[in-house]
Amino acid sequence: QSALTQPHSVSGSPGQSVTVSCTGSSSDVGGYNWVSWYQQHPGKAPKLVIYDVNRRPSGVPDRFSGSKSGNTASLIISGLQAEDEADYYCCSYTATYTLVFGPGTKVTVL
Amino acid sequence: EVQLVESGGGLVQPGGSLRLSCEGSGFGFRHYAIHWVRQAPGKGLEYVSTISSAGNFTNYANSVKGRFSISRDNSKNTVFLQMGSVRPEDGALYYCVRMSGSHFDLWGQGTVVTVSS
């Protein structure tokens, strides 16, 4: 059982925006700005798309952005494209010096 | 090429042991903390274990604490995960992952562990 909660799935049409939420507690998401997001296509290793809540690694399109309010972090994908269809996992540092992943959200491009 | 390559996966009986290895190349391996993250078939990602760059700090998920042990040999650019008292729920694809600051910035392709009698 994950300590973080994410919606099972979200969907949008090409060009639309979708938001994936990640809710934790003051012992993880709310207590640290060390929230990251990973994209995983079927059969592939995860790929970092957002770190430190809202920072984007080089090479990741600027349609990916992140934010946080209280115990909830969010991944926003603007201008949704077909290749964005994947599973997305949030991850947070915790008060016990470990990391915890959310259960994952399937993003579907309609 | 900057990469992490896992090995050592395979079939293990419940209660048995297995040692996974993770070799890094193309970067200053000894400067990075390394983690193991696993993914059961059709399931999500699960944090397993951490070792600091010098090997003097380790940590484990509650689900493996007392059964798994992480270590590293920086002279060989390798991290090990010794799995013991293996349970069926330990069956998964095990990823070796580099941590840069607060996040995982480099993932291996994984090695599969199957637990079955």
Count of helical stretches of chain A: 0
Outline the low-pLDDT stretches of chain B: none
Helix and strand run of chain A: EEEEEEEEE
Strand share of the residues of chain B?
Answer: over 45%
Please write out the topology.
The complex is a heterodimer of chains A (110) and B (117).
Chain A: E1 9-12, E2 18-23, E3 35-40, E4 47-50, E5 64-69, E6 72-77, E7 86-93, E8 99-101, E9 105-109
Parallel strand pairs in A: 1-9
Antiparallel strand pairs in A: 2-6, 3-4, 3-7, 5-6, 7-8, 7-9
Chain B: E1 3-7, E2 10-12, E3 18-25, E4 33-39, E5 45-51, E6 58-60, E7 68-73, E8 78-83, E9 92-100, E10 103-107, E11 111-115
Parallel strand pairs in B: 2-11
Antiparallel strand pairs in B: 1-3, 3-8, 4-5, 4-9, 5-6, 7-8, 9-10, 9-11
Structural descriptors:
heterodimer; A: 110 residues; mainly beta; six-stranded mixed sheet; B: 117 residues; seven-stranded mixed sheet; four-stranded antiparallel sheet; 55% strand
Description:
The complex is a heterodimer of chains A (110) and B (117). Chain A is an all-beta fold and 110 residues long. Chain A has strands at residues 9-12, 18-23, 35-40, 47-50, 64-69, 72-77, 86-93, 99-101, 105-109. Helices cover 0% and strands 44% of the residues of chain A. The mean pLDDT of chain A is 94. Chain B is mainly beta. Chain B has strands at 3-7, 10-12, 18-25, 33-39, 45-51, 58-60, 68-73, 78-83, 92-100, 103-107, 111-115. In chain B, strands 2, 4, 5, 6, 9, 10 and 11 form a 7-stranded mixed beta sheet that branches. A 4-stranded antiparallel beta sheet of chain B has the order 1-3-8-7, with no helix packed on it. The termini of chain B are far apart. The model of chain B has no long low-confidence stretch (mean pLDDT 96). Classes of the chains: A mainly beta (110), B mainly beta (117). The A-B interface holds A 2, 34, 36, 38, 40, 45-48, 51-52, 57, 87, 89, 91, 93, 96-104 and B 35, 37, 44-47, 50, 59-61, 95, 101-105, 107-110.
